[in-house]
Amino acid sequence: MTETELARVALGRPDFNVIAGWVQPGERVLDLGCGDGSLLRGLIETRGVLGWGVELDDVKVLAAIRNGVNVIQGDLEGGLRDFEDGAFHHVILSLTLQAMRHTEGIINEMLRVGREAVVSFPNFGYWRHRQAILNGHMPVSESLPHQWYNTPNVRFFTIADFDDFCAARGILVRERKVFDNGREITEEHNFLGSIGVYRLGRAR
Amino acid sequence: MATDKGIGVVEAQRARFDAPFALASGGSLPGFELVYETYGKLNAAKDNAILVCHALSGHHHVAGYYADKPNNVGWWDNMIGPGRPIDTNQFFVVGVNNLGGCHGSTGPASINPATGKAWGADFPVVTVTDWVNAQALLADRLDIAQWAATVGGSLGGMQAMQWTMQYPERVRHALVIAAAPNLTAENIAFNEVARQAILTDPEYKAGRRPVTGLRLARMLGHITYLSDDQMAEKFGRKRRPGSGSYGFGVEFEIESYLNYQGDKFAEWFDADTYLRMTKALDYFDPAAETGGNLQKALARAQAKFLVVSFSTDWRFSPERSREIVDALVHNGQDVAYAEIKSVHGHDSFLMQDAHYHAIMRAYLDGVRK
Lengths: 204, 369
Description:
- The complex is a heterodimer of chains A (204) and B (369).
- Chain A has eight helices and eight strands, in the order ααβαβαββαβααββαβ.
- With 204 residues, chain A is an alpha/beta fold.
- Chain A has one domain: Rossmann fold (3-Layer(aba) Sandwich), CATH 3.40.50.
- Chain A has an eight-stranded mixed beta sheet with strand order 3-2-1-4-5-8-6-7, sandwiched between helices.
- In chain A, β1, α3 and β2 form a beta-alpha-beta unit.
- Chain B contains eleven helices and 16 strands.
- Chain B has an eight-stranded mixed beta sheet with strand order 1-4-10-5-13-14-15-16, with helices on both faces. In chain B, strands 2-3 form a two-stranded antiparallel ribbon. Chain B has a two-stranded antiparallel ribbon with strand order 6-7.
- Chain B is an alpha/beta fold and 369 residues long.
- The chains are: A alpha/beta (204), B alpha/beta (369).
- Chain A binds chain B through residues 28, 50, 52, 58, 61-62, 64-66, 68-74, 82-84, 87, and chain B through 306, 322, 325-326, 329-330, 332, 334-339, 341, 355, 358-359, 362-363, 365-366.
């Protein structure tokens, strides 16, 4: 199981419930790095959205086809150039941003092809992660399940960092939900939260 | 991969259609025959039928072999059979030789009832839409109101896709493999060189079999079906043992291979069929009816799609498949797309590849449900 899948399991229902609450029946949804398509399939079955996913990995594309999901094999690092402006109501990037190099590019692309972007990521500022660093080790946790030498993650950032990133680029944070071990965190997000889920838009 | 024995012995069948058949060219045929094969059983609900459409040089003999010719194995036998991706334990599979073909369906070698002689060069030009209309008549004859799926690679993929636009209510799924929404100028150019090889062959002009022209046409075509990498790996600059040098004999292995392919093809393929098959490819352009807008053309489709391309296919590149996918997504239609890593160029769609076959199997499992 990859980091994304492990983290999705760790995330459990809250991630899904949050995203499910943000989409409306009949909406067009694009899930980037959709893996085996289980998130999309859940949104289709419980929320009645029209869904498509993008996935690069052969094994996951096969799994998504087995799941009966509209998966399109492609590389997110090249952007979303094959998709038209405003083609989707929501574009989802679930626990994948930290493993991508073109951070700014993909967020811009999500907000180009989607009216709203939904982004979730592991919070490197989570207190257990800070504790690990203070103890002299790179953090390993439910939301960061890999070791430093085999992690697919290439960007290491916190909830506070992502807030700054959005503010500096005129990206509106319409909603933010933070979780620790499946439980919603209501205060001290950057310290107590292991995963952040954002609903982003552009100022019109 | 497949350790099973496949579908085994099969037999070709014929269907005769006596009504005049109007063609896209404006002409018509005074009735025609199609030769076809079926594998598996049509279920009681008649909802498990799959149509396999063939490419340029293909035909109705898609899987299995003939009792009297055990070496004559169908061209997609690795894909179709009991337990294979197109599983004949589940599906009723129909393969048909297209109109204008040279494997038994009415074509240039058939007798023109108006003259009592073979049609030859007078056989009308047929298009993908004509083929689909003819296939629809066969479907009626077989009591198939709706295909569970239409499937094909290359020119066959174009037919599988055309079905969804021409008879939207008659197709539940389309598996469009190594295809394109139309041919590029470069692609038409290759076809034109192949046609000129035949048309300018003095034998063809004299009404005889243009062996030289057919050889050249096939050699050129064959180059475009392979990939540079694959040719480098398979042949490189290797020379034939004992071959001469500083002359024009067959010296490099790739020359030998191409000559062999050309000779083999020229022995059995009909030149007038070849001309028509390449023209059908060139003319295929469903978006032409909607002002060049593929999205609009595909919007009438009710089918769900699986689109498959191959990384080293430069004749029908992955980008061309993506055009189909993007148009479907734009329309809000169901589509899955896989780009298979393969070294075999355009011919990849015929090859046995574990991942490719797994994708086909996974999608078809969903078709069955």
